[in-house]
Amino acid sequence: MISRLPSWVWIGAASLAVVAGMVNVVGFLGFEHQAVTHLTGTTSLLGASIAQGQMRPALHLLLLIAAFVGGAALSGVIIQDSTLRLGRRYGVALTIEAVLLASAVPLFEHQQIAGAALAAMACGLQNAMTATYSGALVRTSHLTGMFTDLGVFLGHALRGMAVDRRRLSLCLLIISGFLLGGVIGAWLFPHLSYRTLYVPAVLTGTTGVAYFGYRLWRGPAGTLSP
C-alpha cells in the first residue's frame, strides 16, 4: 500500500499521462494509424504481418518495438533505478523526451516511419522512468494495468474488503490524464497536424524544469524514497 503520496508524484503522473494520451492519439490519427505508447497491439500486428508475409509493415512494427525498448534502456542508463525517488536524474530524462517528441514532428510531416519511432522511444523512456512508487506501479503510457487495478478494487469493495484509496486515486488520475491528453490531441490535430506533438514536448520540458526547481528547493534533505 502507498503510505504517503507526495505532491510531485501526483503532478508528475498526471502531466505525463496527458503527454502520453496526446502522443498516442497523434500516432493513431497519423499516416500509419499506429499506437506508439504501448506495444501489445503493435506486437499483435507484427504477428499478423509475419503470417501474411508482409515484410515491409513487419519491419516498421519491429522498428517501433525496438525504439520503445531503446527508450526504456536509455531511462535505465540515465536514472539507474526502478523506484521513484527525488534526487534521480528525471530532469535529464524529461528533457531528452521533449527533444525526441519535437524531433519526430518533421519526420512525421514527411511521412517517415522514423517519426513514429522517435515518438515510441520517447514513450518507452517515459514509461520506464516512472516505474514504481512504494510498491505500486506508476505507468503513464498505457492503461491496461490501471483498469485492471480498478477491477480488483471493485471486486474487493463488493466483498466488503478494504480498498487502498490512495492507489485507487492514482489510477483514476492517470486514466483521466491519458483521456484528457487524447481529447486535446484529437482536437488539435485537425488544426496543427503533427505539430500537435510540440505541445506534449513543451509540457514534458516544462515538467523537467519544474522538477529541477523542486529538487533544488527541497535539497538533499528532501529526498524521498519508499
TrEMBL record:
The keyword Membrane applies. The chain crosses the membrane at residues 7-31, 58-78, 168-189, 195-214. It comes from Lysobacter niastensis. Pfam families: DUF1275. The keyword Repressor does not apply. This is DUF1275 domain-containing protein. The lineage of its organism: Bacteria, Pseudomonadati, Pseudomonadota, Gammaproteobacteria, Lysobacterales. It comes from the Bacteria. Keywords: Membrane, Transmembrane, Transmembrane helix.
